[in-house]
Write a structure and sequence with these properties.
By secondary structure, the chain is an alpha+beta fold. It is built from 15 helices and 9 strands. The protein folds into 3 domains: 107 residues, no CATH class; 137 residues, no CATH class; 103 residues, no CATH class. The N terminus is likely disordered.
């Protein structure tokens, strides 16, 4: 009996360890599994023989693994990872050839992942509290960021033939600290046009001066959303009414709050077609110099201090781009085709969302490191729970 216990003990321990590792993986990707089933068979129309074994959700699972495991650095390393039995079991994928991986970026349409991204964003919890949470619940910070591309990526237009780049246009749900929607384009593009193609109803868009376009203002209003957009301080305005500034607004830096008859001069077409509001905020830049932020909005009902606060949250999208490039490593492109880069960017955004959903807070470098060790089995369940508890204390 003693010999029998000795022989079966290690096997039982190995089985328990493997089960624990699978459980960790399931908990991380549980919100995603049901959504991935929708795209499982997408792109298989050409498979008349019915012998395809590598599907869309398999490819996306490998891309998610690429961002979670820092030892994976290329498409070839992903192919090699599929050779290991535990990888295949935990991801539910078959062994895949390098040729199948390369073909995938041509077969699988990245547009099918975009709805999955949006649904995952709906699962994230808001971080704001009090009157800010109520007033800024649908605050969506918008910006674009360039990712350097190789000169041979001819589709990625930018400055010249030697300087190629792709731009990720991101709608960031500032109240939750998560990406809500994204599209990819060549770096040489129009940011207002990119936002116009992504507009949704019920949003409060906050943007910098690169999006200051009367036509964009009109489009945002037409879809049933609102905006707070910074404009140049030399813009021509026709003041209808000066509003009083409350003490709270003054403390937030508001120095002027006016109702405008129209934007621009009488010699130009009134594209917006309705009165607007201008809130001027005195802000201090990083170099210590003072500057005026001219913020145009259609929200007459919002307190002026909340207008100033909403614009400050625009920086959240800038910080997220830093996370995406410097921590997740999304600036290293594993594919050179337009569809392949888009799939990689969507996978990076999905990883960020899964972390936010699992931890209940904005992803940080330390949390990301802890999750990597947790998935490897080098951080226990109790240690991971203690880390999450610490995050909740800091956000409360």
């Amino acid at each position: 009996m003693a010999n029998k216990r000795t022989s079966t003990g290690p096997r039982q321990a190995d089985a328990e360890e493997a089960a624990a590792l699978r459980l960790r993986s399931v908990r991380m990707i549980r919100p995603l599994r049901r959504l991935l089933q929708r795209i499982h068979s997408a792109g298989t129309e050409r498979d008349r023989a019915g012998n395809r074994r590598f599907f869309y959700d398999h490819y996306l699972s490998l891309l998610l693994l690429y961002f979670i495991n820092p030892s994976l650095t290329s498409l070839r390393s992903l192919q090699n990872a599929s050779n290991w039995e535990q990888v295949r079991k935990r991801l539910g994928i078959p062994r895949v050839s390098l040729g199948s991986l390369s073909e995938s970026v041509r077969v699988f349409d990245p547009a099918l992942v975009r709805p999955i991204l949006k649904e995952l964003a709906d699962l994230a919890r808001p971080h704001l509290q009090g009157r800010e949470a109520e007033a800024l619940a649908n605050l969506t910070a918008v910006d674009g960021s360039v990712f350097a591309a190789l000169p041979r990526m001819a589709w990625a237009l930018w400055m010249d033939a030697e300087h190629r780049g792709v731009k990720l246009h991101l709608q960031f749900q500032a109240c939750k600290g998560v990406p809500g929607d994204a599209v990819l384009s060549p770096a040489a593009c129009s940011e207002p046009a990119a936002l116009t193609s992504m507009l949704e109803a019920g949003r409060l868009y906050v943007c910098d001066r690169g999006y200051a376009s009367f036509e964009l203002f009109r489009r945002i209003l037409d879809v049933g959303s609102s905006f707070i957009i910074r404009v140049k301080d030399d813009i021509t305005v026709n003041v209808q009414e000066d509003r009083s500034i409350s003490e709270t607004a003054a403390q937030a830096g508001v120095i002027r709050d006016v109702i405008l008859n129209r934007l621009g001069t009488a010699h130009h077409k009134d594209v917006v077609g309705r009165p607007m509001r201008l809130v001027v905020v005195q802000a201090v830049e990083r170099n210590g110099k003072s500057t005026e932020l001219w913020l145009v909005t259609d929200r007459f009902d919002m307190d002026a201090d909340l207008i100033a606060v909403a614009y400050r949250y625009r920086w959240s999208v800038e910080l997220f781009f830093r996370w995406l490039k410097c921590v997740l490593g999304a600036k290293h492109l594993v594919s050179h085709s337009e569809q392949g880069v888009a799939l990689q960017m969507y996978a990076a955004l999905i990883v960020s969302l899964l972390i936010a959903i699992r931890t209940g807070s904005k992803p940080t470098k330390r949390t990301f490191e802890t999750i990597q060790f947790y998935l490897l089995g080098w951080v226990s369940e109790a240690e991971f729970a203690a880390h999450l508890a610490g995050l909740k204390k800091r956000t409360c």
